[in-house]
Amino acid sequence: MDEGSYTWPGVAGLLRDRFVCVRVDTDRRPDVNERYNQGGWPTFAILDAAGEVLVGRTYVPGPELLTLLRSASDPTSRWTLAPEPAPVLGHASIDVDTLFARVMEAWDPYHAGFGEMQKFPHAGVLDWLTDRLLRGSPHGEWTRDALARTLTAMATRGMYDKVEGGFFRYATQDDWSEPHYEKLLEDHARLLPVYARNPGTQATIDTATRWLLRTLHDPGSGAFFGSQDADEAYYHRPAGQRGERPPVDRTIYAGWNGLMITALVRVGAARSRPGLIGLARTTAEHVRTLVGEDGCVTRHAGGVAGLLEDQVQVAEGFVAVGCAFGERDWVRAAADVLDWAWARLHVPEGGLWDRAPVGIGRLRHVRRNVLGNAAYSRVAGLLGDLIGGDWPARSDETATAALAESEEWGFFAAPAGAAAERRSATRVVIKVATSGWPIPDLLREGLADPHPDHVWVGVRDGVPAGMAMACSGSACARPTADRAELARAIAALGRRQPVPVPADPRTP
Question: In the chain, what are the domain boundaries?
């Protein structure tokens, strides 16, 4: 549109004389994107003075754009305004089995992956499948096949850059060919932990990590930039003839770096690369500069603050660092970040809004979305495992809220199913004595444990040096330095009778 539509004769003059033009970067303002996106990018919308949509499209060619602008700015024109209705809270009309059936229905048995036509990574779906496979849930054979084939397809077909490494944003065809060539930090931060939890994917993990460190890592801050641009001409050239690499968006996003902190801990543990775990701590130190004293997370320097998903992603990264280094300050910092969200975004009926309401256009409508509540449930559950308090109750409430909002999401609501099952599972916390750095081999091996119900944490006291102790609820095995004895204790505690999630999230 920059090269063709906005340069069409007459368009620039109309825009200058009759409109207030605002360009919104969706990475910087995902809340605006969620409310105004017209079905894809670029989104073009004409708003009235109150911020309501008069007309909206995705790509608009020059002649059509000129007609729309003339009509919308003609004082004699009569436009019918259909304001976006205020959102209605969902109700728990869908259960986990139904949600999993939707995932199975979305499965592509020919090319692997989920959905039709365009193929996206859907890390949340893959993570839930991994959880179910490791718990020995029903449909194990189908789950194993779907996971293996999808992970292989993403790593070996068009969506993966076989020359430089790294995942492209998505594939435009159902056979994973013809990718959209942008590479996002967010996608890698979500996908790498999934690959690290599944065997046989070491080469993909290593090449993708090398691309991240070479392209998006900022040595000055220790954090990671947001993305590398899509340049079809560059990627269509043969290896060695590509020339100058596509530009990088050097914005540092707090939430995506929070995800990356968790990914670095997981990958560093799984691939026996403690340096990556050390880098996770360095990244966390920079992200901490984007967190206010009250726990409010600023998305990027000078940007919007207090978005639910940013709060949760940063908190999860802090928990990962705290567990890896045995530093409780990081766990307390995570609690502060989630406390901020609970105090300001809590929904009386249960769960959390995606942001605080703003009296401008559609931003005045807050939403109780699936992904934010499912993610909050996961991290609150971790805090409950580590420090107790009311965190388990919060985890239950947000898991229930996520499931209640899942009806219209289809298989995209997989994280809600994962959250619900996590709350009904028996959790085992394995405490490993550590003095910080270097991380003991036993703790590093534990952090690589893919099981969704095992929480490995380094501790500075309570466990004798060189030993570990497994606990579940108030029951603990004796400390031991023997790996076989520890494994038996974990297995025995994991077979304890699970506690069901209350039907009413406000029931203690």
Answer: 11-72, 426-508
